[in-house]
Amino acid sequence: MKIFSLTLLIVMIFCATTFAEEVHPPIISVSGEGIVEASPDRATISVGVVTRDKNPSAVQAANAKAASSVINSIVALGIERKNISTGNYNFSPTYRHSDNGRSEIDGYEATNSVTIVVDDLNLVGKIIDTALSKGANRVDSLQFGLRNKNSYQDEALRLAILDAKHKAEIAAAALGKSIVGVYSVSINHSSIDAPRNYKMARNMAADEAVGIETPIESGTLHCSANVHVEFEISK
After folding, report:
1. Can you list the domains of the chain with their CATH numbers?
2. Model confidence over 71-81: pLDDT tens digits?
């Protein structure tokens, strides 16, 4: 019995030692970042048609007429209807506050937000101007993007991994060690960021200079990826 217990204890110690060596190899933990610049080839424009009146039916009718005019004018520019959609529609009463502190309905408001996706960036300014001249009275946003964003994100991720590997090799060499394998990899984030965020607040088409197209500069997009890698190093 004592011989069996001693043998079992030796086996357990050996297994525990072996397991500890497998679970805790010497590692270097580093983060890596990759950034790829890209010229946008897609724009998403959101314009709004806002109508107000005392009569709810008049509000709805005026809004529908203006929104239809905006959409038809954009189609006339060569934009396919499949690239035009209603981003948001809202119909609600408006209120006024009386002297006694009570709120009373004094009319109604309808808002129709039209979203346009365009791949010809040369048309962006013309689309905005056309929409404003045909019934839109608000430009909510303009965002630039990429049609094939996956290839740029993949390249940013590859560069992030290489960045992490480079840092680990320098650190290992400084310690008199070498990289012998990869213990773990985690991708923290991958994103596409625009340096500019176009937020507009034009309320009336009359504010536009007659005959002058709104100038739009798309700038450059930055595709980035961040990783965390643990490399095994020689003992």
Report:
1. 25-41+147-205+219-235 (3.30.110.170), 42-145 (3.30.70.2970)
2. 999 999 999 99
